Amino acid sequence: MNDQEALQHFRDAGALLEGHFILTSGLRSPMYLQCAKVLMHPDRAATLCGALAARIVAKLGDGAIDLVVSPALGGVVVGYEMGRQLDCPAIFTERVAG
Questions:
Q1: Which of 18, 45, 51, 54 could form a disulfide with 1 if both were Cys (CB 3.0 to 4.6 A apart)?
Q2: Mean pLDDT throughout 2-10?
C-alpha cells in the first residue's frame, strides 16, 4: 500500500480533515488525520496496520520486532493490531503523573 492508498482509507472514513490546524507541537498543518474514525472499523485497522507491518518487515526483516509498546488510550488499538500483524506481544503504557 502506498501513501495515497493509505490516505484514501482516511478519506473514505471521513477521517482526513483539510484546513488549517495547529498541532500540539505548535507546528501548523493543512491536514489532520482523525485516527479514531478509521480505527473504529476493524477491517480498516487491520488493512492499515498490515501495510505498516509489511513495511517494517521489508526494512528490518522478519522477526526483528519482538514486542510492540503503545501509549494507553489512543495507541491501544494500533499497538494490539501491530502485535497481531507482527506475531509478537503488545503492551501499553500509562502516564504516571502529568
A1: 51
A2: 94
